[in-house]
Design brief:
Layout (H helix, E strand, L loop, with lengths): L1 H24 L2 H12 L13 E8 L6 E9 L2 E12 L5 E4 L20 H12 L9 E5 L3 E4 L9 E9 L5 E10 L6 E7 L5 E6 L1 E6 L2 H7 L10 H6 L9 E6 L2 E6 L34 E4 L13 E4 L19
């Protein structure tokens, strides 16, 4: 009897362990493809739309074992620019969440599969469009198939120029064959990413990888009296900061995942280190509205959708957490009411 019970227990455990082992052995790409097949009609995609995909990124989060997979849509091995969908897969092999940026019926929207302009011709067109001189050839540093080339920047770009063949989706819904390349201008802080028509050399689209903005300096903010935090600034405090003598702003540049700070403050005998954080008095304490419950989360921030101080003032937010994502708030320590 004991032997029979043990045998039955082994069978039950085996049946439960097989699906888990199968899920662990199945590759994330296979799981994503199976999920796409089930979503194809809902997302209004054709078989061809999901048959030619390439992995652009994949990583796993340690704390929950989830795999995050990103796929770009292609036609005959040529990617549709920015058509990247994400698939977030649990350790059990289930797609917990997915985003769809694929285009329906891509094969019927493309205009060509072979370029008439070369990758170097595209660089020349882009340089002329940006008003940059390009004399002579640029050294080709690499090549992969006929879809990707790498050139030295020369006098046109501070960084090497990678050129890859893509499709650019246009406003009319058509997808034009194009060369995608980025030029890191040597004469200013702009880093332009452009799509150049591979048949005509025309510039189809561009975006700037550099963001820049001007913020008031600490002294300027206090002198002007920020309504959200500096109304209590005293006349003595303003006098200490030399408000009557004027203050200057600071300009920040965000480029290529780097932060380049270009403060415009001037050197003076009384302020020999104008850029040092200790060269100005500490900012005034921010007034906080007392909360009826000290466990509440209070944050004085530039609320969404504001991106910087030029777009609005700071506000004091009380418990700004998402009740679904964080049902017990951000300050909870035990996951209970």
């Amino acid at each position: 009897m004991i032997a029979r019970s043990t045998f039955l227990l082994i069978i039950v455990l085996t049946l439960f362990s097989v699906p888990a082992a199968w899920a662990q052995s199945e590759k994330p790409l296979d799981i994503a493809r199976r999920y796409l097949a089930g979503q194809r009609e809902k997302w209004q995609l054709t078989e061809a739309d999901i048959s030619d995909l390439r992995i652009t990124g994949q990583y796993e989060t340690r704390h929950n074992g989830a795999t995050h997979l990103y796929l770009v849509q292609q036609h005959q091995g040529i990617e549709l620019f920015n058509a990247i969908s994400g698939f977030h897969i649990t350790r059990e092999g289930r797609v917990a969440f997915a985003t769809n940026r694929f285009t329906s019926g891509l094969a019927d929207k493309v205009n060509a599969t072979r370029p008439l302009f070369s990758a170097f011709d595209a660089i020349k067109s882009a340089a002329a469009y940006l008003g940059l001189p390009l004399t002579g050839e640029l050294e080709q540093k690499g090549r992969k198939d006929n879809h990707f080339y790498a050139f030295e920047g020369g006098a046109v770009s501070d960084s090497d120029i990678g050129v890859r063949l893509v499709y650019q989706l246009m406003d009319d819904g058509n997808a034009r064959l194009a060369w995608c390349l980025a030029i890191d201008r040597p004469d200013d802080n702009n880093y332009w990413n452009l799509r150049v028509d591979a048949l005509t050399g025309a510039i189809l689209s561009k975006d700037n990888w550099t963001a820049s903005c001007t913020f008031p300096s600490l002294a300027e903010a206090i002198c002007e009296g920020d309504a959200s935090s500096n109304e209590a600034a005293s006349a003595d405090r303003k006098s200490q900061l030399g408000c009557s003598q004027g203050t200057e702003s600071q300009h920040w540049v965000f480029k290529k995942s780097q932060v380049l700070k270009q403060p415009q403050a001037k050197y003076t005998e009384s302020n020999p280190h104008p850029h040092h954080p200790l060269s100005l008095p500490l900012p005034l304490p921010l007034p906080l509205t007392p909360s009826p419950d000290q466990t509440d989360a209070q944050y004085r921030v530039y609320p969404i959708p504001l991106e910087n101080p030029e777009e609005g003032s700071r506000e004091l937010l009380l418990n700004p957490h998402d009740p679904i994502a964080s049902p017990f708030g951000w300050h909870d320590t035990d996951g209970q009411e």
